[in-house]
Amino acid sequence: MLKKVFGGLKMTWPAVLIFAVLAGVITALIAMFVPDENSLHEVAVSFEAWILFAILIIVNCDKPLEAACKTFVFFLISQPLVYLIQVPFNALGWQLFGYYKYWFMITLLTFPGAFLGWFIKKDNVWSGLILSVMLGLLVMLGMGYLRTTIRSFPSHLISTLFCFGQIPLYIFGILKNRKARLAAAIITVLAVLGMGWYALRQPARDMMTVVDLDESKYAADENWTVTVADEKISTAELFSIDGDYYLRIHIYGTEPNVITLHDGRGNEYKLTVSYEEDYGTRVIEGEGS
């Protein structure tokens, strides 16, 4: 069965195109109808499942350039489709594509990544080393989920198992050479130990939050700007939907940070953003000056 999946499938261009459309449509539906706290929702926001999709394409191609082209086209079709389907049903509308920047960078990296990744089919020590890069990404993601699971069991337990479950699947499903398996396993164990030591000691945090600006307090318009005291802790940006203004805040650290709204007429409105382990991100409004 594993031999058929990892090398025995006919990954023709029509198959890649159909695969891309199905992946995009299904992921969009998951993003719209599966709650954020459900592990299945991670397919829409993280990339552990997409590593699996990429590997399925790569190992079922005959040449490295073929693998690079087909993997690149798969992501080039599927990822924009995820956002395009959501646009009519999402409050952000076309601004939802602002999140595609992250996936577009990943899409560009899939071409050289898949070209190099194809050589895992050579089944030698170098194959094990190349595969270990992909396994390292899964370890990184898995450790992040494991941290959340430990702090709030059973949250993201399925995501944790999915990430770590892929590791032996690839080592024993793709590699047959004993030395190749050993190389991949050793590097993966080192990655688990290193990333695990780091990740389990970092506090969980919200990555992004959106604040609805009360019109009675903040008569925001296109002249308003935003500054933050420390961009290493968090960043912020204003955006509007049908004339209503919102503040999008990206969180990078746990320390309190001050966000200042400038109305273009000399008035300032300060918000204090902080992170608390038990409550997540908190935004406390200050007084205008």
Account of the protein in words:
With 289 residues, this protein is an alpha+beta fold. It is built from 9 helices and 7 strands. The chain folds into 2 domains: 2-199, no CATH class; 208-285. It starts with a helix and ends with a strand. Helices cover 51% and strands 16% of the residues. The chain has helices at residues 2-5, 13-33, 42-45, 48-58, 64-86, 100-117, 125-151, 157-174, 178-199; strands spanning 208-212, 225-228, 234-241, 244-251, 257-262, 268-276, 280-285. A hairpin with a 3-residue loop joins strand 6 (268-276) and strand 7 (280-285). The strands form 2 sheets. A 4-stranded antiparallel beta sheet has the order 2-5-6-7, with no helix packed on it. It has a 3-stranded antiparallel beta sheet with strand order 1-4-3, with no helix packed on it.
The counted number of beta strands is 7
State the helicity in percent bands.
40-55%
Main sheet: strand order:
2-5-6-7
What is the 3D shape? globular
Number of spatially distinct domains: 2
pLDDT averaged over residues: 86
Give me the number of helical elements: 9
- What is the element string, with H for helices and E for strands? HHHHHHHHHEEEEEEE
Strand content: 15-25%
- Terminus-to-terminus distance: 68 Å
